[in-house]
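Workshop exercise sheet. Pairs work together: one partner reads the sequence aloud, the other fills in the structure field after running the prediction. Swap roles for the next sheet.
Pair: D.N. / O.F.
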Amino acid sequence: MKLHTKFSRQLYRNIELICSFMGNSSDFVVREITTGHKHAALFYLDGMTDMQKVQDNVIRPLHDRVSSDEITLPLLKNAILDIGEASFTQNFENALEQILSGGLLLLLDDMDEGLVISLPGWEERSISDSKTQPVVRGPQEAFTETLRTNTTMVRRRVKDTRVRLTTMKVGEKTKTDISVMYLYGVADPKKVQDMISKLKNMHVEGVLESEYLEECLHDKQLTIFPLFYNSDRPDSIAAGIMEGKIAIFVDGSPFAILAPAVFADFLQSAEDYYQSFVYSSIIRILRYICLAICMLAPAIYVALTTFHQDMIPTVLLLSLSAQREGVPFPAFVEAMIMEVVFEILREAGLRMPRTVGQAVSIVGSIVIGQAAVEANIVSAVMVIVVAITAISSFVIPSYTFAIPIRILRFAFIGTAAMFGVYGLTVGILMLFVHLNGLHSFGVPYLSPFANYKSSEQRDAILRFPYRTKKHRKN
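Structure field:
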């Protein structure tokens, strides 16, 4: 028995086939009724379909408004049923796909065609503020898990007739709705067609979150850095679309993807555009400084205390030596112990209930750091270095971009412990070479720095005033 089998003109046969496809699931409802002296059947999933609308807009009109034996599906759709989105279908595959998406299937006896009515009725999370990218000044709403709600929130901000939306289903088992949104005439048409083609030809069992798509669209580039920008803020996605980027929305995920994405995008925040350009520029510079501290501070400390003591001022060196007296471990082991402990506390704080998670991470850091110093396991300076490093990592606006920085911190600590400042310098050069070789959907990852473009420097690090920004002619 194949899924693309067409409907039979015998209603009882269609009921048997649909029930066999659905496996007699307890939430699958088959309701047989008589309308206009003709036998009919309704098929839907309990919990996926709005039962009140089924009763008021379908069942009641079928009972009260039908009086003729010459009843047809076009007549039901156009004159009798109080429905909006409806379509005709002649095969089981399309019908079952609509039922699994919250639709209702209406079949009549002696007809080999069915009427599929869209009546979704599942519970939806209300719009709330962003939990991952909060701002002090600016829009406070964030995406939800409903696809159409998310695309509407972006359309509300970009009221342009050139905004295009292409929707498809991805995933052999989940058949997840995926929408691609872009601004026609501004986005690169080749990139748009390439994106749509890749999504349509993507062979995966299921898509439950936008990360599934990101990994499949990476073009086989081996890297720990994110090549797509994701956000749960409608204003950030709207701004990206106006710049010519392509947005991807996944049904069931409150995060949208922007492509292409470059290195500078991950160090910018939506609030940069809601504050004074002077303040925003200073904060951006601070983020780059914090990025360097987060990635290199422990490694520099290990390199100096292990190989290059002559580079440390004498007074400071004497102070460090006094603090490290009695510590049985070298600086490398100290750094690894404290970094691992802090990562454990960070993850514990994220996974625990929010009412206690933050308190546990803060109190745990203070207690463990103080106890480790008093027990002569680590020095007080190492605790300070790790604390500054940890605080600097929270300044990075993008959580997904902060993860590879945290990973690189451990690699640089190991390099510094083996080869000192020289090894650290080589590691930094190798990092730049790796970043320079990355591309995000055809765009160099270090753009506009690596392939220098003076016209794009006004919003790379510093944010220039809006009045100096050149508007697009198209």
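Discussion prompt: The chain has three domains: 11-118, 147-261, 273-444. What would you look at next?
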